[in-house]
Design goal:
Strand order of the largest sheet: 1-2-4-5-6-3
Shape: globular
Radius of gyration: 16 Å
Helix content: 25-40%
Order of helices and strands: HHEEHHEEHEE
Distance between the termini: 26 Å
Oligomer: single chain
Number of strands: 6
Structural class: alpha+beta
Number of helices: 5
Length: 157
């Protein structure tokens, strides 16, 4: 990752907690690694983000997971690559109550493998799993995000 972008991404991560869809849903980034390869989000279940059954609104559970694999790859791959959300699915396993968390992590090996495949093929769609858990570690939901990644110079052909 280029050093000039580090400051920009740190600012973006600080500001995301004030982004209205996150702020008003009770979603917060509570931790991230210095190299931006890991993020942790939290959703506090409140009166304004509960469904009719008194549990976490499914849209808030999905939103707490939405951009983070894309963030990791945008940051790690650099400006020569385009990263877009392509697919997503969520499976609700258990009602979310109280506070729930989601962790997003890609290892240097995973990032390197993605980069090699995209460099070889020009583009690709990659799927990343995520789990949402409560304070006790109970599985609340399973999510899969599919990201489309390609090299920018593919545009110029």
């Amino acid at each position: 990752m280029e050093k000039k972008n580090t400051k920009k991404f740190r600012r973006l991560i600080r500001l995301i907690n004030w982004y209205p869809p996150y702020f008003f849903s009770g979603i917060k980034v509570i931790d991230y690694s210095d190299d931006f390869s890991y993020f942790r989000t939290r959703l506090k279940i409140r009166w304004y983000n509960r469904n009719l059954m008194g549990t976490a609104f499914g849209g808030s559970l999905f939103a707490m997971c939405d951009p983070f694999f894309m963030f990791i790859l945008l940051i790690q791959l650099g400006e020569e690559y385009i990263v877009w959300d392509k697919t997503a699915s969520i499976e609700f396993v258990k009602p979310g109550r109280g506070i729930v968390y989601a962790d997003f992590k890609l290892s240097p090996e995973e990032i390197s493998a993605i980069k090699k495949e995209v460099d070889r093929e020009g583009k690709g769609v990659f799927e990343f799993p995520c789990e949402i858990k409560d304070d006790a570690g109970n599985l609340i939901a399973k999510l899969k995000k599919g990201l489309y990644i390609r090299r920018k110079e593919l545009n110029k052909r």
